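PROTEIN DESIGN WORKSHEET
SECTION A - STRUCTURE
LENGTH: 496
TOKENS:
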């Protein structure tokens, strides 16, 4: 551009001839004439592309191959070179590679999708799952997080779970509605199997029972995007990536899922203070319009769990999602309901909760509660040492000491009394029972009745009154009534 200006100045201001200027600057006279006609370089103007009649008969073949490629994996589609080779080998094409390459490039440009800018009404939402790595209690694992976006205000809510399951989907909605303190009027989803049992064609969907229950409870409308068209819910797709890059970089190191979700919620609240490009208001200020248009929360939140029917087997176990969970043995062979929450499994029989377990996301694991088997072990004491539910049960040392003394004193009946002592944990806390056992060991009252009596005395805060008739092995104390003469002997000693 500098030379361009110097040439124009030399001719038009200094009055030099075009011939001399062309010679001094090493340019042709034609180039100098062009410079004088335009104040700035006009730029290169490509001529109309030359028609290539050799390609004409094969254009239909090329278009058919490119159309078929749209249904194939991206990494296994035809390149221009591969298409050129096939034209020569299979169709006798005699033209050159360049005309094929140019046509393929122009066809691909014509086939790229264009989009219409959208506006979003207040009160509507979009939801989707994403994945990110986290370090949970020192172990690296994958977090599946539900992101819900309000496109009108760009407000958001993100919550993470161990797996993308029905109960996580439901719990995520319950927590999101509580965060917004309202329910979106309509939520846009992809065609996740958690919500969609079957695509019926067009916009018709057969919804799953769990999703229908959630929708009936909160009364929001739904909308589902086209299969494999993520741009239908572009706002939440962008939020999924934004949350991963901003909320989870560096990789979060937490001790529990509750700690991770507290971090994510804090980040969402902090984001409300941002003012995005093109807006005069912050996200939080624009959210007020969203909130005003949304539905009110129902009186009670939805019970976010998966419910399935199951049967207790002969080992007093119930199977849920590939894992076995124990129940009390007297419910054996009975029909039960399993409620699978994100972090808990609850087993119900005839409207009564009979077992609660921490949820396991392993496969083919067996989760025992030792207390569930004590009633059966009281009858089958020979299985005490090999009982799998008791393996790895960490009890204070006084329990083992009590068992040794019981078995030494009562022989084969000692094991049964020991199990009876363990069964006290069905009613009382282990800390209370531990103190009662330590009292019994200190007093030398080694029996179930004594431990139970001492336990109740501690809880009721009264002194123990042990019946010594039950302990013939202890030396009996001889106590007689005191006589007045006994005091005279004491006086005599003082006088002396």
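SECTION B - SEQUENCE
RESIDUE ASSIGNMENT:
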């Amino acid at each position: 551009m500098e030379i361009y200006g110097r040439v124009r100045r030399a001719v038009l201001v200094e009055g030099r001839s075009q011939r001399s200027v062309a010679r001094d600057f090493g340019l042709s006279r034609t180039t100098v004439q062009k410079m004088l006609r335009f104040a700035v370089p006009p730029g290169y103007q490509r001529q109309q592309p030359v028609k290539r009649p050799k390609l004409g008969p094969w254009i239909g073949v090329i278009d058919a191959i490119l159309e078929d490629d749209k249904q194939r994996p991206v990494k296994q589609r035809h390149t221009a070179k591969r298409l050129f080779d096939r034209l020569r080998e299979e169709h006798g094409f005699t033209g050159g590679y360049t005309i094929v390459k140019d046509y393929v490039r122009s066809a691909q440009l014509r086939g790229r999708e264009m989009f219409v800018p959208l506006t979003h009404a207040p009160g509507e939402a979009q939801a989707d799952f994403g994945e990110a790595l986290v370090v949970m209690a020192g172990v690296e694992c994958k977090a599946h997080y539900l992101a819900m976006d309000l496109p009108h205000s760009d407000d958001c809510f993100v919550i993470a779970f161990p797996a993308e399951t029905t109960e996580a989907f439901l719990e995520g909605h319950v927590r999101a509605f509580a965060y917004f303190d309202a329910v979106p009027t309509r939520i846009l989803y992809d065609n996740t199997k958690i919500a969609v049992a079957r695509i019926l064609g067009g916009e018709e969907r057969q919804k799953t029972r769990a999703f229908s229950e959630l929708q009936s409870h909160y009364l929001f409308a739904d909308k589902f995007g086209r299969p494999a068209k993520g741009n239908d819910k572009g706002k939440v797709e962008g939020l999924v990536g934004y949350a991963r890059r901003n909320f989870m970089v560096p990789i979060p190191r937490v001790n529990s899922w509750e700690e991770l979700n507290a971090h994510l919620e804090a980040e969402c609240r902090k984001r409300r203070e941002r003012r995005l490009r093109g807006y005069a208001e912050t996200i939080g200020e624009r959210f007020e319009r969203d909130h005003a248009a949304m539905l009110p929360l129902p009186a009670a939140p939805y019970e976010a769990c998966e419910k399935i029917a199951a049967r207790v087997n002969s080992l007093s176990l119930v199977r849920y999602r590939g894992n076995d969970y124990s129940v009390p043995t007297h419910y054996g062979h009975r029909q039960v309901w399993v409620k699978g929450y994100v972090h808990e499994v609850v087993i119900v029989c005839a409207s009564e909760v009979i077992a609660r377990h921490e949820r396991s996301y392993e496969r083919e694991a067996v989760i025992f509660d030792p207390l569930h088997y004590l009633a059966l072990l009281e009858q089958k004491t020979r299985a005490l040492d090999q009982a799998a539910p008791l393996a790895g049960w960490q009890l204070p040392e006084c329990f083992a000491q009590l068992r040794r003394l019981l078995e030494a004193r009562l022989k084969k009946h000692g094991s049964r009394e020991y199990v009876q002592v363990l069964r006290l944990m069905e009613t009382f806390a282990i800390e209370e029972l531990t103190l009662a056992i330590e009292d019994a060991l200190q007093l030398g009252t080694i029996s179930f009745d004594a431990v139970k009596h001492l336990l109740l005395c501690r809880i009721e805060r009264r002194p123990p009154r042990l019946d010594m008739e039950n302990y013939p092995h202890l030396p009996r104390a001889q106590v007689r009534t005191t006589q007045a003469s006994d005091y005279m002997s004491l006086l005599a000693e003082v006088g002396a």
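SECTION C - NOTES
The chain has 17 helices and 15 strands.
The chain has five domains: 2-37, 55-111, 124-293, 306-367, 374-470.
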